């Protein structure tokens, strides 16, 4: 308890103040702390409405601490210490419960999000090609060189691009250029389906466009062939 004369804290039911030597005169408490009663009501009633997301219990905890402090300093003039302690305990328990629930919810939510992310990543990878190959363009009487070849796809495309596509331009010795474009479509049995768009030079001013669909399974596949050129896919080294 606190000395009403000097404000020093003393042992409960002390007869003389240890600081100033004043004699304590005890009198029967005249009233019960309304703040202590409010703290108890808020602490208990909070369980019926789950503390309105903790606000009720926070207020109850604050009121209980303030009431307990005032009762201790009242020199026995205020009562309701039990009410204040009940309010503090119930409010603290309620806050612990709601914090536990929030923690469990966050854990479950993060685990679900992680699981969905993994499933999405797997789905994306499943929709991407995996069989490596090289598209080659060869003119009649010539051999494929580095300028006339291109990989079906590169690893960076699978990570950053929404679709896998490629392009190669090959010019013949007489200056005629063939343009080969392709795009991955889907998996087909144990192969991977590509759509090819091939612009074939006919003469100096005329070209024709050829559309082909090829299911590539890792073995050499001819995409297009005529008298002057051949387009094919070969396995990557």
Task: Kindly state the number of beta strands.
Answer: 10
Q: Could you give the distance between the termini?
A: 88 Å
Helix content: 25-40%
**Count of the domains:** 2
Low-confidence spans: none
Major sheet: arrangement of strands: 4-3-10-9
Annotation field: number of helices: 4
The assigned structural class equals alpha+beta
Mean pLDDT, nearest integer?
A: 82
Task: State Rg.
Answer: 42 Å
Please summarize the sheet with the most strands.
4 strands, antiparallel
Tell me, briefly, the overall form.
Answer: rod-shaped
The proportion of residues in beta strands is 25-35%
Helix and strand run:
EHHEHEEHEEEEEE
Structure description:
By secondary structure, the protein is an alpha+beta fold. It has 2 domains: about 30-120; about 135-235. It is about 35% helix and about 30% strand. It is built from 4 helices and 10 strands. It has helices spanning about 35-45, 50-75, 80-125, 155-160, and strands spanning about 30, 80, 135-140, 150, 165-170, 175-190, 190-200, 205-215, 220-225, 230-235. It has a 4-stranded antiparallel sheet with strand order 4-3-10-9, with no helix packed on it. A 4-stranded antiparallel sheet has the order 5-6-7-8, with no helix packed on it. A hairpin with a 5-residue loop joins strand 7 and strand 8. The longest helix has about 45 residues, at about 80-125. The model has no long low-confidence stretch (mean pLDDT about 80).
